[in-house]
Design a protein that fits this description.
About 45% of the residues lie in helices and about 15% in strands. It contains nine helices and seven strands. It has helices at about 15-25, 40-50, 65-80, 105-130, 145-150, 155-175, 195-200, 205-210, 220-230; strands at about 5-10, 30-35, 55-60, 85, 135-140, 180-190, 240-245. Strands 3-2-1-4-5-6-7 form a seven-stranded parallel sheet, with helices on both faces. Helix 1 (about 15-25) runs parallel beside helix 2, helix 1 (about 15-25) crosses helix 9 and helix 3 (about 65-80) packs parallel to helix 4. It is globular.
Length: about 250
């Protein structure tokens, strides 16, 4: 049995689910974290197990410290010592301008896209860092091309939250580089996932994708490939790096 254990937040669908499936193929024991869609998480786990892999699904709201602690303890108890974290869980809301935002929406976006990754990264460091007696590991944060582009007239709040995640990636990478942990980020662009429906524009990738330099939107499996590369020994001298996966945009 492989000694590699990965926790993927928001792992029940989209990029998270594609990453969970590929991680299992690569020999990881996989924890699929989810907040609401138990059936989707169970489907991912069933698919992994049917192919001979090892996976569990754990419901937890990663914006809450107590639930993060419970989530990571479940990984410890059921899968073994953590070696990898993919901070994938995140959200956006209906497209609008900045001058139409309210406090409640901002609170929700910051919690999901900033607080959650911070809490999960902290829990992972306490397990993987040599400072705490760990054997090292890797963290990949799933950011967005929006952090570079700003998402005007659509999701300036989402873009700003991913900019904060980028800053965390750089800072944490420098903090733990000498403790056996590598921290990197992927910045997907227009990817065929359900997140666009949350913004009220489910056909966004089909509409905008043909305008990109590569002429199409991306697939979750394409993002998963890069995430697994950044988790793997193949990127052993890479930390604090950002990989833009946005079709040339």
């Amino acid at each position: 049995m492989s000694n590699d254990v990965v926790l993927i937040t928001g792992g029940s669908r989209g990029i998270g689910a594609a990453t969970a499936r590929l991680a299992a193929v690569r020999g990881y024991r996989v924890c699929v974290n989810f907040r609401t869609d138990e059936a989707a998480a169970a489907d991912v786990v069933d698919e992994i197990r049917a192919a001979g892999g090892t996976a569990i699904a754990v419901r937890a709201d990663v914006t809450r410290s107590a639930e993060v602690d419970r989530l990571f303890r479940a990984v410890d108890d059921e899968l073994g010592p953590l070696t990898a974290l993919v901070n994938n869980a995140g959200t956006l809301e209906k497209q609008c301008r900045l001058d139409e935002l309210d406090e409640e929406r901002l609170t929700r976006i910051w919690a999901a896209n900033i607080t959650g990754p911070f809490l999960c990264a902290g829990a992972a460091v306490r397990r993987m860092s040599t400072r705490y007696g760990g054997a090292g590991g890797a963290i990949v944060n799933v950011s967005s091309a929006a952090a570079r582009l700003g998402s005007p007239n659509e999701y300036v709040d989402y873009a700003a939250s991913k900019g904060a995640l980028d800053s965390m990636t750089t800072g944490l990478a420098l903090e733990v580089a000498a403790e056996g942990i590598r921290v990197n980020s992927v910045r997907p662009g227009l990817i065929h996932t359900g997140i666009h429906a949350l913004g009220g524009d489910p056909g966004r990738v089909d509409r905008v994708g043909p305008l990109l330099p590569m002429g199409r939107g991306g697939q979750p499996e394409e993002i998963a490939e890069t995430i697994l590369f950044l988790l793997s020994p193949a990127s052993s001298y890479t930390t604090g790096a950002f990989v833009d996966l946005a079709g040339g945009r």
